[in-house]
Amino acid sequence: MIEIYDLEEFNVVIDDKVGAVKKKLVSYDGSFYVVSENTVLKETLIFRSDPIGKVDDYNEVGGGRGLTIEEVIADFGGHLFKW
C-alpha cells in the first residue's frame, strides 16, 4: 500500500532558468521516502526519509531524469533502484 503526503513546493532559479521544486512524502512497503521533482533539471529523485519527511542521506534510491513526480508516484515500486 502506498500513502502520499504533500511536503512543499517552491520556486528555484538555476542558470537563469526559473522552475519549481515539488516534494512529497511517500509511505511505501513499510518505509518512508521523499520524492523530489526539479522542473529546471527535469528530474525526479527518491530519497529515504523518516516519517515526517526528514532526509538524512541524500543518496538517491530511485527516480531519474526526464520523469515527473506524478510518473514516479504512479509506479513507485518500479522507480526504486533494485539492490
Describe this structure in words.
There is one protein chain. The protein has about 80 residues and is mainly beta. The protein has one domain. It is about 10% helix and about 55% strand. The chain has helices at about 70-75, 75-80; strands at about 1-15, 15-30, 30-40, 45-50, 60-65. The longest helix is centred in the last third of the chain and has 6 residues, at about 70-75. It starts with a strand and ends with a helix. About 20% of the residues are buried.
Task: Describe the structure using short key phrases.
about 80 residues, 2 helices, 5 strands
Can you give me a brief rundown of this structure?
By secondary structure, the chain is mainly beta.
Biggest sheet details: 5 strands, antiparallel
Distance between the termini: 21 Å
Which strand order does the major sheet show?
A: 1-2-3-4-5
The percent of residues in helical segments reads 10-25%
Q: Which structural category fits the helices and strands?
A: mainly beta
Number of strands: 5
Give the topology, please.
Blueprint: E1 2-14, E2 17-28, E3 31-38, E4 43-49, E5 62-65, H1 69-74, H2 76-79
Antiparallel strand pairs: 1-2, 2-3, 3-4, 4-5
